[in-house]
Design goal:
130 residues; mainly alpha; 4 helices; elongated
Amino acid sequence: MKHNSMDDAGCCLLSVAWNIAPPAAGLPDSRRGALRCTVESVCRTAGHGARDWAARNGAGREAEYRPFLQLADVAYEITTLLLLVEDFLVPDLEREHRRWAEIEELASRLTELADWTSAFLSRSGSALPA
């Protein structure tokens, strides 16, 4: 399915936020739990902001909504990898280290995209939900 509007991007972000698996029992204060909370908050805020922007400005141009779609994609990838590092049949420390390195790299990208989308919404006068 091709997503080609700011409203689509907002819906994608809200879907990612809605579908984040809760932290494993006993790990709410772990790095995994913190990342899940961050991803959920970023996606919810950007998703509502994108939908609000779309309601006032229409579909938008690809250059405007593409970073929001990229944010959703990166967030989805982080949450998928988090599931893989906490649930396995055979422990493999090397595999876990590789996945964590990728998660941390994606978390940096998430921060960049979250900053960009937040600045875009602020410049355009969209209300950013708390």
